[in-house]
Specification:
- The complex is a heterodimer of chains A (about 300) and B (about 325).
- With about 300 residues, chain A is an all-alpha fold.
- The two termini of chain B are about 45 Å apart.
- In chain B, helix 3 packs parallel to helix 6, helix 3 packs across helix 9 and helix 6 runs antiparallel to helix 9.
- Chain B is elongated.
- With about 325 residues, chain B is an all-alpha fold.
- Classes of the chains: A mainly alpha (about 300), B mainly alpha (about 325).
- Chains A and B meet through helix 1, helix 5, helix 6, helix 9 and helix 10 of A and helix 5, helix 9, helix 10 and helix 11 of B.
Chain lengths: ~300, ~325
Amino acid sequence: MLTYTLKRLLAAIPTLLIVITISFFLMRVAPGGPFDGERQLPPEIEANLKAAYHLDEPLPMQYLRYMGNLLQGDFGPSFKYKDFSVTELIAQGFPVSLEIGGLAMLLALLLGLPMGIIAAVRRNSAVDYAVMGTALAGIAVPNFVIAPILALVFGVLLAWLPAGGWNGGAWPNLVLPVIALSIQQIAYIARMMRASMIEVLGSHYIRTARAKGLSERQVIWRHAIRPALLPVTSYLGPAIAGIITGSVVIEQIFGIPGIGRYFVQAALNRDYTLVMGTVVFYGALIVLMNLLVDLLYSALDPQIRYDD
Amino acid sequence: MTTDTTPYSGYNMPAGGPHPPTEPDPEDGAVAGESLGRDAWRRLKQNKAAMVSLVVLIVIAATCLIGPYLLPWGLAEVDWNAFSTAPSLENGHFLGTDANGRDLLTRTLYGGRVSLSVAVVATFVSLVIGVLYGAISGYVGGRLDNVMMRFVDILYSLPFMFLVILLMVVFGRNIFLIYAAIGAVEWLDMARIVRGQTLALKQREFIEAAHALGVRDRKIVTRHLIPNAIGPVIVYVTLTVPKVILLESFLSFLGLGVQEPLTSWGVLISEGTDMMQSAPWLLLVPSVFLALTLFCLNFLGDGLRDALDPKTR
């Protein structure tokens, strides 16, 4: 298991390198620079600024310099948010995004798994259709459509919850963003769980368990659920990536000071270092999450062992 | 009855000569053959939800194509008498206007053209790339397959969303770039599926026979492997199309989609979100169109999957 983990981590490095390199060169290719849009700077001052940030060096040199800094954990300063370094910005924003994303994932599992199980056990009944209909709504309606509607209904019309803002993480402010972020994943997880439960419930050993006289509850909880969880577990990786992506929009809609909104704003502002920092950070996060999910997968299914 | 000395003299030849071969009569006891496509279509027709969805989708597509020609308003035409008016029948703006006085129904239909065209073209791009890549990788096998699939694995773990956003920022918001970028994101799954299919089909006898007959590799891939792998590919295409529409709407919502004066459902939803409290129809109309289209695509995809699944035949 340990060797597998180490091997995976090693394999992740070229992936990250590719991400970093592509992002770096793409950003530099972009027309415009980080100092446009402000007052027209006199050319000497602009030249000085560029020299200070090493933007006047040839690109490969800038690349090497950036990689060197990166290995020391230095993402560089942010061009737009003048007093902050990228590391500080990410450190400020990540806990917020983590809280919302983590809660959303938790909610997705807590709601999605039981929905799928119930729908599978009571297959083709009214419950099944109701659950699957809700799930379909969750898939078909994008979260950037649901989020403003939720904000409108619960925040403005009914005024039960604040329509936006972070407020230091007070729990009323958490409710709407977390729900909006989790809806799509609830739907996917419910559908997958239902499909895999149905398949597991049709297998031979379940039939044996029933023939032995076990109660239906025992059959489901002790024998059916664990194997049925496997496909859902392998979906968890993309699910987490989906939550991360969704957070970009949700944070913008609800005004949450997380990393997601930095990303889009920085890209539009040509804030090179911040964009790079965010992309690298997300890339590393997704790779790490995929690894954790694979380890979890092997823990759930005794037949899958990664040791050679 | 004609007298004839042929070996078939005991056979009553029908007047007018022998008929051309017809399909065997089911009452004969012989089985009438049915092609895969026809079988799938018949089973699909039995799925009411899928059929209704298909009809609705065709209606939506037709409306988006033809509708703008039937409506009096242009895409960017400003009606100076009607800024942010609610839907009404009297003033001719059936679904209301936006803050700039542009008719919402017309813009939604034009937006539908863009969203649907992105869906079709980007899916087609990903289809072509993915099928070729997967078929070649699966058929050649061995080292090449290994290398190609490692490449796919590496690409899989890239945070594509962010790279697409970067692309849009760097190269400007060009609709052809959107086609290409979204297509480039989705081909990975297609390649994997086709490769899996190819690996399974490679072992079958008819491929061996084609080999033995001396058919060139390229012909085997194009004329024998790909047509037989089509089933899951079609299913995956119907699953990809909603993903593509969502991705394009997502980009447009962030302001990185199509450029003015083109519009898409994502752009309209984004505009509607800003005006949500004062003019809710601006949010609701494109949302309903988008949600309805995605619903129907999902039902259709599920129906196709059931129709093409060999296990439930």
